[in-house]
Amino acid sequence: MNKQELLAGLQPDIELINESMAADFSSIGSSRLAEVVDYAVFNGGKRLRPLLTVLMGRLVAFTRMPEGIADEEDLRPPPDLYRLAMVFEFLHAASLLHDDVIDHADTRRGKKTANEVWGASTAILAGDYLHTRAMTLAGLVGGQETLGLIGQATGAMIDAEFLQAQTVADVNLSEENYFAVLRGKTGALISSACEVGALFAGADRDQRAAIRTFGDALGLAFQVVDDLLDYLGDSASTGKAIGNDFCEGKMTLPLIHAIKNSPPPQKQLLTDLLTSGGPADRQARIADVTAIIAEAGGFYYAKQGAETLVSAALEALADFKECESKDILHGLAHYVLSRDK
């Protein structure tokens, strides 16, 4: 499935997700709050998380259905599945609003951040609203078990932020700790989005375990590719400056590998920049740092890691019936590897 076929297959669900979110925002009493959350949610975004909820719901429903009852295209997901799916876009948008305030960011996806437009206090309150609304919908639409799954995922996100803050510029950071951060920051919410869709469709224990594995591996692969794009991407596409993670002292997989495998002089340069240099010093040496990481095989190593994770994700879906939803999930997994933003 090429990119055009994938986008064509996803577009109907994206439109229904967007319609569900817009309808939900229509009940907001404050015009300013409605303006800010609309800006945060509809200011680009791939809708990956809610799409996974819908696709997993359809995949499980078709897999559980006895042979010959109906074709996959006859299965029309109920509106509540889309309402449940948008929970994950609300949570994602809330986290970005808060992240931009914490990082004092002024652009997101090539546009001004909400805190730049309306101020930090307004952005924080909008993020709080989206988080609260997401948890309310999770309980109302999905019930107690769904609320518990999402609560665990959001808790993991916060834990991971604290863990990452504790390991900034830690030149001895292990890959184990790196992936622990990724699993909390990105993997937990993506895995939860997958499992909630499966739970909604009545998945059994083994099916839910397989889908958790898919979501966890896909989430990790997504973030590893994100770390690669930070060095190798086009800032016009990614919406952020090249080398931003290094300037902030963040230890990502290409850098961890380079520090472990570079000759002493290059290793010393990386170490000095991380431990003694400031953001401006690091920014000035981004070209040198990128060359060192490439020479040490850091980018190749990270790319291989992402490919292995995607393979593990796809293997987890092996026992589900062949259908369009499964094909699209395969296409999404391969898109994660090839994306440029």
In short:
This protein is mainly α and about 350 residues long.
Describe the secondary structure blueprint for this structure.
Layout: H1 3-25, H2 31-42, H3 48-64, H4 79-102, E1 107-108, E2 111-112, H5 114-118, H6 120-142, H7 144-166, H8 175-200, H9 205-232, H10 235-238, H11 244-247, H12 253-261, H13 264-275, H14 279-284, H15 286-295, H16 298-316, H17 324-338
Antiparallel strand pairs: 1-2
Structure in words:
The chain is mainly α. It has one domain: Farnesyl Diphosphate Synthase, CATH 1.10.600. It has 17 helices and two strands. The chain has helices spanning 3-25, 31-42, 48-64, 79-102, 114-118, 120-142, 144-166, 175-200, 205-232, 235-238, 244-247, 253-261, 264-275, 279-284, 286-295, 298-316, 324-338; strands at residues 107-108, 111-112. It has a two-stranded antiparallel ribbon. A hairpin with a 2-residue loop joins strand 1 and strand 2. Helix 7 runs antiparallel to helix 8.
Q: For the record, give the distance between the C-alpha atoms at the N and C termini, rounded to a whole number.
A: 19 Å
Overall 3D form: globular
- Characterize the biggest β-sheet: 2 strands, antiparallel
- CATH fourth-tier homologous superfamily: Farnesyl Diphosphate Synthase
Question: Order of strands side by side in the largest beta sheet?
Answer: 1-2
**Strand/helix succession:** HHHHEEHHHHHHHHHHHHH
Instruction: Determine the fraction of residues in helical runs and give it as a percent range.
Output: over 70%
Computed CA radius of gyration, to the nearest angstrom: 20 Å
Per CATH, the class reads Mainly Alpha
> What is the CATH architecture annotation?
Orthogonal Bundle
